[in-house]
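Page 37, top half.
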Amino acid sequence: MAKDKYHYLVKQALIVEGWTITDDPLEINTLVADLEVDLGAEKIIAAEKGVEKIAVEIKSFLSKSWLHDFYKAVGQFGFYNLAIAAGEKDRVLYLAMPDTAYNFLFRDPISQELARINNMKFIIFSVENQNIKSWKK
C-alpha cells in the first residue's frame, strides 16, 4: 500500500518523542480483510506502569476539500478502531493530521462532534517544523 506523503515525517517525529516504531505498517487481520494501519509504536511510560501502545493512521489532507478528506478519514478510523479493539485491546488508535487541516476543520462544531462521538484521538503535526505539535484525546 502506498504511504501517505507525510508518513516519514510523522514516523521520525514519533521517534524524536521517544516512541519505538514496532510495525510499519501495523497489520490487523479481520475475518473479511487484512488491514494495514500506517504505524504501530510503543513507549515505556514508567517501570511500574508498563508500555503504552499506539496505532497511527496518517492522513496528508492534500485534496482540494479537507472536509472530504476528513469524511473519508473518519470512516477509516472507525473501521480500524473496531478492528484494533477486537484484536489488540491494549493499543490506542490515533489519526495523525497536519495542523493546518486540523485548525481549519475543528473551527466547525460539527467536526468536533463527529470526532467526539467516534472517540477519535489525534496527533497534530507541523509540516513546516516537521514535528508533533500536540496530542488530542
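Page 37, bottom half:
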Amino acid sequence: MGTDRVSVRETRQRLRRLLDRVQAGDEVVVMRRGIPVGRLVQAQRKSPPLPGLSDFRSSIKLAGRTMSEEIKAARRSQRY
C-alpha cells in the first residue's frame, strides 16, 4: 500500500487500473501542473444500524380468533 502521484492526463488514460489499485488499498493523488487537485481513496462502507424490532412487536395487539381458527371456520362454512 502506498501513495502514487499521477497527472490528470494519466488519470484519464488509466482510470480503470488506478481504481483497481485504490480498491486494493493504495492512494492516488491527482496532480495538475505539479499541484495536487484530488485524491482517490477507498470508499468507507458504513451500513446504518438496523432498529430493534422488540418495541414494534410489543406494540402489535391482536384481537379475535387466530388465523388457524379462521381457516377452520371458513372451511366448515363452505362444506354445508
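Margin note: The CA atoms of residues 5 and 14 lie 13 Å apart.
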